[in-house]
């Protein structure tokens, strides 16, 4: 007899919550209000405080439920299970509502602030039905040497011949390069990257990396980003970090710039810290708004990205305004901060998924910065760091989210703190 659950509410990691035999169960491919049959993930420990599982049949469907646009990423019971699109069963408006609810919930529970959060969709995503936004894809070669994804709950690898979340142009490039035909060493990692403005990779501005080695295209990619009417050019490492959604670099750089301008209520600032700065996506536009004597201190852990940030600054004629430091943020903003950068007017930070954590938040507060602009790819980490920042005297001034990962539970949030 299959187990039946009434789904209660959204939870994190693309799951919803219900109860089964008195225990909380986190369910994949569920929606609030639904009555569903589930399969419980095994093994279940007798003392486990909660269960996890997946919907196998929907008895009473939510009006938000849709047929997955990418069936392979849908529920296992419908021959899906490869992951990568855990909200594929929810309509696009429901995906936004889900992300909004989750950010508000985490900000309240862990950040201890009541916030109403708008989640904005990137231009073009609605028309594309939430597909075709990735400028980079990562796959593993299966036993036959074909690009594949692993099916959940098994060791089975499923060969794929298209990646629906990737730009159409990137899929076409993969076809042209023979990527879907395979021929890779089994188990090798395959990355294909095509910059946002490129149509076909004809000029070689793309990368096919296999086990981190260039097989076609080139390693140093050129990305163009328009921010407030000005074009910025970035050299980025094909294997390194770059915002994945085709619109993310422009949207986020613009949002950061506006937040700093608005927060300081001025078109210029003397000193801005750009922490976790990557190849300088935000540093360059920030440097253009810094006053005549204003400067940006960029701090980034990857040496390759720092070298590129320096090169990008130089090419933009902004090198005298940007000091790019390599190293761990926590170490770099403790003690010997380069002369002239000790008292920032604004701090921008864009940490990895785990967040900045308490020590870095306290160091930011110690810097005396009156304005903090936090770009977060994980609402839970943002909420945790919000609690530290508010305990250190900051107030949440505004918060806005961007759905830069349609079909997945991921979301980018920009929070502005002042004091
Ligand atoms: C989310 S990315 C943001 C990069 C950049 N702001 C952008 O949008 O392109 C986070 C960056 O933090 C860097 N990073 C991760 N942990 C770090 C640490 N402890 N100290 C310095 N940088 C770190 C990563 O290398 C990565 O480039």
From TrEMBL:
<feature type="binding site">
    <location>
        <position position="350"/>
    </location>
    <ligand>
        <name>S-adenosyl-L-methionine</name>
    </ligand>
</feature>
<dbReference type="InterPro" id="IPR029063">
    <property type="entry name" value="SAM-dependent_MTases_sf"/>
</dbReference>
<keyword id="KW-0489">Methyltransferase</keyword>
<feature type="binding site">
    <location>
        <position position="243"/>
    </location>
    <ligand>
        <name>S-adenosyl-L-methionine</name>
    </ligand>
</feature>
<dbReference type="InterPro" id="IPR002792">
    <property type="entry name" value="TRAM_dom"/>
</dbReference>
<dbReference type="GO" id="GO:0070041">
    <property type="term" value="F:rRNA (uridine-C5-)-methyltransferase activity"/>
</dbReference>
<feature type="binding site">
    <location>
        <position position="300"/>
    </location>
    <ligand>
        <name>S-adenosyl-L-methionine</name>
    </ligand>
</feature>
<keyword id="KW-0808">Transferase</keyword>
<dbReference type="Pfam" id="PF05958">
    <property type="entry name" value="tRNA_U5-meth_tr"/>
</dbReference>
<protein>
    <submittedName>
        <fullName>tRNA (Uracil-5-)-methyltransferase</fullName>
        <ecNumber>2.1.1.190</ecNumber>
    </submittedName>
</protein>
<dbReference type="GO" id="GO:0070475">
    <property type="term" value="P:rRNA base methylation"/>
</dbReference>
<feature type="active site">
    <location>
        <position position="377"/>
    </location>
</feature>
<keyword id="KW-0949">S-adenosyl-L-methionine</keyword>
<feature type="binding site">
    <location>
        <position position="276"/>
    </location>
    <ligand>
        <name>S-adenosyl-L-methionine</name>
    </ligand>
</feature>
<dbReference type="InterPro" id="IPR030390">
    <property type="entry name" value="MeTrfase_TrmA_AS"/>
</dbReference>
<comment type="similarity">
    <text>Belongs to the class I-like SAM-binding methyltransferase superfamily. RNA M5U methyltransferase family.</text>
</comment>
<dbReference type="InterPro" id="IPR012340">
    <property type="entry name" value="NA-bd_OB-fold"/>
</dbReference>
<feature type="active site" description="Nucleophile">
    <location>
        <position position="377"/>
    </location>
</feature>
<feature type="domain" description="TRAM">
    <location>
        <begin position="1"/>
        <end position="57"/>
    </location>
</feature>
<dbReference type="Pfam" id="PF01938">
    <property type="entry name" value="TRAM"/>
</dbReference>
<dbReference type="InterPro" id="IPR010280">
    <property type="entry name" value="U5_MeTrfase_fam"/>
</dbReference>
